[in-house]
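target protein:
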Amino acid sequence: MFQGFKEFIMRGNVIELAVAVVIGAAFSAIVTAFVDNLINPLLGAFVPTGSLSGWVVTVPGLFDPASIGIGAIIQAAINFLVIAAVVYFSLVLPMNKLAERRARGQVPADVPPTQEELLTEIRDLLAAQRNAR
């Protein structure tokens, strides 16, 4: 039971995923600080409260009025769009361009050598070893 779990954890994909989650969390904090301290004050100049995150719309209810934090929703959407744009332009777009270049043959794909090529290399190394004695 534990052997299967150990094999699962030691796979490269799980480690890469863990690293990606940690980096994503750190990047999310940077984007949140950027939006909170730069974008929100700029957009806050155009909302009645002076702060985007503090912009609340009050809706009358049956007993008490309800408050909808429209600014917080807009702020979350801006965070998402900034993160999506950075991920797209820094990761997805370059990988797509690289895949296109490989498809056109401009960048050689990592093709493993054939058995014949490996046997030829072994033969040449053995011959060089025999001649060196």
Notes: Strands lie at 57-59, 66-68. The radius of gyration is 28 Å.
